[in-house]
Amino acid sequence: MNKITIYTSEMCPYCIKAKKLLKMLNLDFEEINSDGNFDEMCESLSQKYNRPGISTVPQIIINDHYIGGYDDLEHLYKTKKLDEFLK
After folding, report:
1. Residue 76: enclosing H or E segment and its boundaries?
2. What is the domain-level CATH number for residue 22?
3. Model-level pTM greater than 0.85?
């Protein structure tokens, strides 16, 4: 089973698009709203995935692989490389 985590903000249009794409693909995901702790979320993900400068949402993690934001997710989907991250 895939473990997909998406860090979001309530009013973020790219977060909405990312969730819509994941739902369209029938993929279950855990959503973590970062509105109350945005800076902490950015710092934590930057350190954990060795990605300095994370400062936006959504941030998408699939099976402990850092994917990035909506544009990255969409690119993987359109190039049919998303399956490489899915079990």
Report:
1. helix 70-78
2. 3.40.30.10
3. yes
Residues forming a β-bridge with 66: 61
- Of 55, 58, 31, the closest CA to residue 42 belongs to 55
Residues spanned by the domain of 20: 4-85
DSSP-assigned letters across all residues of 11-58: T-HHHHHHHHHHHHTT---EEEE-TTSHHHHHHHHHHHTT-TT--SS-
pLDDT in tens, 49-87: 999 999 999 999 999 999 999 999 999 999 999 999 998
User: How many residues are there in the chain?
Assistant: 87
Residue 84, classified by CB atoms within 10 Å of its CB into exposed (0-12), middle (13-18) or buried (19+), is exposed
Measured between alpha carbons, how far is 72 from 70 in angstroms, rounded to an integer?
5
